[in-house]
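Q: How do we represent a protein-ligand complex in a form that can be generated token by token?
A: Start from the inputs.
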Amino acid sequence: MNKKPIGVFISGRGSNLKSIVNACKNEKFPAKVVCVFSDNANAEGLQFASKNNIDTHTLDFNNFENKGHYEVEIIKLLKPYDIELICLAGYMKIITNTLISCYPNRIINIHPSLLPKYKGLNTHQRVLDAREVESGCSVHYVNSKIDDGEIIMQTSVPIENADNSNTLSKKILKAEHELYPAAIIKVLKK
Ligand code: GAR
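Then emit the structure tokens for the protein with glycinamide ribonucleotide bound:
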């Protein structure tokens, strides 16, 4: 199969990156991760990418005057890879129109809630405080608002009485690892 080149952006642990890279190992999966970008040179996921012979790039935002300049540099880094899709996977910087307009409808993100509910940070505790009976995860197209944009796929996860934010985040993360590769297949089929 002719695999489409994709890039993954991370800021930390990179467990979703792992699930995507592992999915790509299946010859029927329509994509191949050709580069990983991080705003954080210490992101754990970068080591995993290198071990899997995937190019990694980092840029420290503190060395740039503004987000526009930062993203222009990211665009330059990505250009040689000719990527079909950017997958944000725990990338904690807000993306602006500079990058979005360069990859229209080709940037997607995963968020650990049933969007449009519970955008932003500290999701699981807010869900529990609101006494929700379910939560979950969503993959959506990225626009310039936080955790906004058309939803591509979601998985719901029931909340049990004994759940705390730690147990809930583990359950949802497991669902994320299934959902993200499935959403990539869906997006690349379009
Ligand atoms: C994931 O739970 C992802 O949904 C979340 O960050 C975590 C990254 O984990 N993303 C957001 O909250 C985006 N708003 P990972 O580095 O192990 O993939």
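The longest helix spans residues 165-189. The two ends are 16 Å apart (CA to CA).
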